[in-house]
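---------- Forwarded message ----------

FYI, see the BLNK protein record below. Original note from H. follows.
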Amino acid sequence: DAGVHSKAWYAAICDRKMAEDALYRSNKDGSFLIRKSSGQDSRQPYTLVVFYNRRVYNIPIRFIESTKQYALGREKSGEERFDSVAEIVENHQRTSLVLIDSQNNTKDSTKLKHIVRVS
């Protein structure tokens, strides 16, 4: 277990659209939640959804089978790895998370500041 089920930021019954709608309603930079990923893929079990600068970013959370750890986004050399999804959240509440806009090829960064609950 990734240590997500008891967390306020985990939206258990929530799809991509519900998550995005909830974040747009919050309209606060650094608003976030974690949802189950749309594809039923054990290597990418969750998605971190972040609101920043009037945009919503869906960042895949990968599970690395060989080390039983988690990492954000696509695999890259020297990436940060965490023992639980909760550690990813705690880390990025303290240190900025880089947000990459693949459409406009721009980079932003924000900390995870406001937990959004999906109603």
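H. also flagged this: Residues 41 and 113 are 28 Å apart (CA to CA).
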